[in-house]
Amino acid sequence: MFRFRRTARKRKPEVNMTPLVDVILQLVIFFLVTTTFVSVETGAQVNLPAADFARIEEAQTITVSVTENNMIYLDGALIDANELSSFLVVALRQAPQATVIVEADRNVLHGKVVSIMDILKKTGAERIAVATQPTSQAD
Questions:
Q1: pLDDT digits (tens, 9 = 90+) for 99-116
Q2: How far apart are CA 98 and CA 107, in angstroms?
C-alpha cells in the first residue's frame, strides 16, 4: 500500500495580544494607585495641635513652620532662626497683604511661638494666623 505523506502546514508566526494587554492594564493600575498616595510636603513635618474651629482660607499666604526640635521653615525652606526677620521682610515686600500662618508642632514651647509671632509683628506682618487641625483628626 501507499503511504501518503501529509505535508505539515507551517503556521504563520503571530503575536498574542492578550498578555500584552494584561501587562499594560496592570501598569496603568499601578501608576494610578501610586500617584494617589503621593502627597505634597511643605518641607517640615509638624504635628499641629487640635482646635474645635479650624478652617482653611484660600488666600495668599506665607507659612512659618516650627518643628518639634525647634527647626524653623519659611514656606518649606529651612532657615536659621536669626535670619527669620530678614527673610520675612523680603517675603512681605513681595506679598504685603499675605496672611502669615504659624505652624508650630504641639510639643513646641509656648515661648518659642510667642517670640516668632513677635518677630512677625516687628517685620510688618499685619495678618497672622495659627494653624491647627480639627479635633476629630487629632491623635
A1: 888 888 888 888 888 888
A2: 27
